[in-house]
Design brief:
Blueprint: H1 6-19, H2 44-54, E1 58-62, H3 67-79, E2 84-86, H4 89-97, E3 114-118, E4 121-123, E5 128-132, H5 141-144, E6 147-153, E7 157-158, H6 161-171, E8 180-183, E9 188-189, E10 197-198, E11 205-211
Parallel strand pairs: 1-11, 2-3, 3-6, 4-7, 6-11
Antiparallel strand pairs: 4-5, 5-8, 9-10
């Protein structure tokens, strides 16, 4: 008798597993014990800024809401950015108040070079920005534009991903966003001939404006 091929062996193992299902109890797999300890010597703001910057993100701190459009306006002029798109009402109000031109019409979306969004939370330990499909900007804007500008408040800072997901669950209870994305630095890949390419799956640059709302 000929020995079965590797494919047949795999299929046989799959069929066996489907027929003889094992009852495994995973109830104790979700532990409340913290793996990472929050450093006491530095604030979440400082930890996030250091980690985010080390991942080639551009961190900008704003003491007040009024600082945001002023700094952004200078940034747009310096980099000669065109077609800034924003669908978030809260940010649009700040941009209009600060005299920063932007587009919000759906017909202008495909022509946008810079996308401005809010976010759900910031994870200090990993320097990550959490966005979801429940936001006004939706699924597309954070990944479509060449430059993503995220706006957050100091009250949105958490230490760990676990903390962020707990708060997300509470925020949207009883439902949950159909998509939650963790943005950790600008898009990069070295999958093609081990050559590092920026912006392969998303923005080439990412800016985070952190507005102090705890003072």
């Amino acid at each position: 008798m000929k020995e079965s091929t590797s494919r047949e062996q795999v299929l046989k193992a799959v069929r066996k597993a489907l027929i003889h299902k094992s009852e495994v109890d995973y109830s104790a797999s979700e532990s409340e014990t913290e793996i990472y300890i929050t450093p006491e010597e530095e604030s979440l703001e400082l930890l996030f800024a250091k980690t985010f910057s080390s991942l080639k993100g551009n961190f900008i701190f704003c003491e007040t809401k009024d600082d945001f459009p002023k700094i952004l306006s200078n940034l747009i002029a310096e980099n000669k950015w065109e077609t800034v798109f924003c669908a978030e009402t809260e940010i649009a109000d700040m941009l209009e108040k600060g005299g920063v031109p932007f587009k919000s019409n759906e017909n202008d979306f495909l022509a946008c070079n810079v996308g401005v969004t809010l976010c759900e939370f910031l994870v200090a330990r990993t320097g990550s920005i959490i966005v979801s499909s429940r936001q006004k900007a939706g699924r597309r804007l954070p990944v479509y534009s060449n430059i993503h500008i995220a706006v957050a408040y100091t009250s949105q800072l958490v230490y760990n991903l676990k903390d962020a997901f707990k708060l997300l669950k509470k925020k949207y209870e009883p439902g949950f966003p159909s998509q939650v994305t963790t943005i950790t630095g600008p898009s990069q890949t070295a999958d093609i001939e081990k050559t590092l390419v920026n912006g392969a799956h998303g923005p080439k640059e990412i800016f985070l404006f952190l507005i102090d709302d705890n003072s």
